[in-house]
Design a protein that fits this description.
single chain; mainly alpha; Ribonuclease iii, N-terminal Endonuclease Domain, Chain A; 2 domains; 3 strands; about 10% strand
Length: about 230
């Protein structure tokens, strides 16, 4: 099913555990059409790979961007692991030639599947090849657009970043509400709350409604509050 020799050639590695790599490259949609195959799908490795990617990117940003504060570093990292960026990396690597995907997965859905599978591959890189090889793989492929992202300021919209995360993880979006106004008319302060299914996730104050909402969104990204949400 998987041409491991081509995979080894592409990534310049010698695979030690073919079963783990097969798991990393198997999406659950494929198993739906092949119930006779005794295989595991890649969601556990996707979960692990997400953490490995976050560690490597966080480490790199901390080392190389001493002038950036926590909020900026969080937004830059979020852009590097965004759904669109993962999909672009997966396409560039030609993962469609390796990942086992159900015939019912098309177009946009396929891009998401390949992006998620990329996370699983990062996870199996760490397990099968070790931290240094995983670090090399992630830095080579995930950071290729880093300078452009920083120079153009593509990372500076926390509300858009948060919405993309919610759409990917929950197929929904966060709700913003102004929960408090204070001060005289010429010097008002606004406190915004970010809600999901009536649950207050964060709140922040700003001199405009937009600023308050952006700070509240940034707080969720920085503290990674969204990871605690149960679907």
């Amino acid at each position: 099913m998987i041409k491991f020799e081509k995979l080894e050639e592409k990534f310049q590695i010698k695979i030690k555990n073919k079963n783990l790599w097969l798991e990393a490259l198997t999406h659950k949609s494929w198993l739906f059409f092949h119930p006779d195959k005794n295989l595991r799908h890649n969601e556990r490795l996707e979960f692990f790979g997400d953490a490995v990617i976050e560690l490597v990117i966080s480490w790199y940003l901390w080392q190389h961007y001493q002038d950036k504060e926590e909020g900026d570093l969080t937004l830059i990292r979020s852009e590097l692991v965004s759904r669109d960026h993962l999909s672009a990396i997966a396409e560039n690597l030609g993962l469609a030639n390796f990942v086992l995907v159900g015939k019912n997965v098309k177009d946009k859905g396929l891009k998401t599947v390949l992006g998620n599978s990329l996370e699983a591959i990062a996870g199996v890189f760490f397990i099968d090849q070790g931290l240094e090889k995983a670090k090399e793989f992630i830095e080579t492929n995930f950071l290729i657009d880093l300078s452009k992202i920083i120079e153009t300021g593509l990372y500076k919209d926390p509300k858009s970043t948060l919405q993309e995360i919610f759409q990917e993880k929950f197929e929904d979006k966060p709700i913003y509400q102004i929960i408090e106004e204070s001060g005289p008319a010429h010097q008002k302060k606004f406190k915004a709350g970010v809600f999901y299914k009536n649950q207050l996730l964060s709140k922040a104050e700003g001199e405009s409604k937009q600023e308050a909402e952006e700070k509240a969104a940034l707080k969720i990204l920085t503290e990674q509050t969204w990871k605690k949400i149960i679907k």
